[in-house]
Amino acid sequence: MKAGQVIDAYSLIAYLEGEAGKDKVVELIKDARDTGRNLLLCVVNWGEVYYSIARESGFEGAEEAAKTIESLPIEIIPADIELTRLAARFKSSYKLSYGDCFALALAKLRKTELVTGDKEFKVIEKEVKINWIE
User: Fold this and answer.
1) What CATH number should be reported for the domain holding residue 41?
2) Which of the residues 29, 55, 64, 104 has the least number of beta carbons within 10 Å of its own beta carbon?
3) Full-model pTM
4) Which residue segment(s) compose the domain that 42 sits in?
């Protein structure tokens, strides 16, 4: 499958929890299935989703969410040295969470859009194109 846009933890949680922006994420998932262009998710951002849901719903809820993510047209990308170096550079330059910097770095390296509703990404719109879910 071809790679598509990078999805961040914010967008995936909106989808899983039925929060604002969910409908846009549903459209992106359908498009990924129809076109064969997987969404990309850094493993660090996968971890953000997992711990966020575990805090609210326990580990059973987090495991259920992990199974749902597994069933979606999302490719989990490991954090190698190149990705981690760029994320660290972004962290040193912008007031973003370290996890957000991995989503940004992945979008930058893959030369693709970042899907998010997280307004903290407003400061980096010159680095990558943002596909806002809200």
Assistant:
1) 3.40.50.1010
2) 55
3) 0.94
4) 2-132
